[in-house]
Design goal:
The chain is 16% helix and 29% strand. The chain is α/β, with parallel strands linked by helices. It folds into two domains: 86 residues, no CATH class; 53 residues, no CATH class.
């Protein structure tokens, strides 16, 4: 029995079968919780084994997880594997607050600018656009008075 939590996947995933944006095959009581993926997902095998977040789910659980349906190009994920959202919804704090994510101590999000990021591991390039710019500064300024690093 395994589990994953507080995970982010932004890479492209491709293969034949059992391809997912975060998990290819969630098997035998494994638990995936509090995660999201944004990368492109593609598979050449069975369409039911390629999903935006989870490719295949055999007796596992997936809770409080999301995937970007626009960037992944997938409208489906295995076994009620999370919730597919648009890019705009994925960059909105309310999406994650409604699912019980801690956006004060664990996660942060630059409203309408960034996907959630782990506060402990945040970098200067918060919005992951390849450069440190004013959008990153805006995310920092948004959290300045809270005493919490973005």
């Amino acid at each position: 029995m395994g589990s994953t939590g507080l995970s982010i996947s932004t890479v492209a995933a491709c293969g034949d079968d059992y391809v997912g944006g975060l998990v290819g095959n969630n098997f035998w009581h494994a638990a995936v919780t509090g995660c999201y993926s944004t990368g492109t997902v593609s598979g050449t095998g069975w369409s039911w084994s390629v999903g935006g977040l989870v490719g295949s789910n055999f007796w596992g659980s997936v809770t409080r997880c999301f995937w970007d349906i626009e960037t992944s190009r997938q409208n489906w994920s295995a076994g009620a594997g999370g919730r597919g959202k648009t890019t705009a919804e994925m960059q909105t704090a309310g999406t994650f607050l409604d699912a019980g994510w801690d956006l004060v101590n664990i996660w942060g999000v630059g409203e309408n600018q960034t996907y959630p990021y782990l506060r402990k591991y945040s970098a200067a390039n918060i919005n992951e656009d390849g450069s440190v710019n004013l959008l990153d500064l805006a995310a920092l300024a948004e959290n300045w008075l809270t005493g919490v690093a973005p």
